[in-house]
Hints:
This protein is α+β, with helices and mostly antiparallel strands.
Amino acid sequence: MKRLNEERTKILFEKLNKYIGSNVKQLIDRPDGTYCFREHRDRVYYMSEKILKFSECLGRDKLISVGTCFGKFSKSNKFKLHITALYYLAPYAQHKIWVKPSFEQQFLYGNHIPKSGLGRITENTQQYQGVIVYSMSDLPLGFGVAARSTMDCKTVEPLSTVCFHQADIGEYIRSEDILF
Length: 180
């Protein structure tokens, strides 16, 4: 496990800032201890400092994963959040979209959210703002990017897209590797 360099740290925090704003500080300084981000094979892991100390005993070649995988850097140095980060980011989300029960399954299949599937949206959500998608019973379902601002959502046609799909909890099933 190695520390992220300055460039990658900046890219990671910009991506997290898109979804949770200034609450990134609360991810690191938590009441139950100090947490940190470490990189291993282009993946970024989130873990407590206690777990980090235990993982330093293992060699890099023997280590597969430590902590929670927050995402991965691509070869072009772009960061993509993984769905495993959802439960850490959801409590700190500044912008949220709630999906109607009739459209939850469609979102979990990887579809964008049209206005007809929109239950509620946080006030003052800007266009292209990162949002956390919830069911109407406040269960976090995934990540998205607002295709329209809150004001535009009120006047748009029912079949127009209001949120672009980024990741959802259905990916666990869709991307499952079958080993024979």
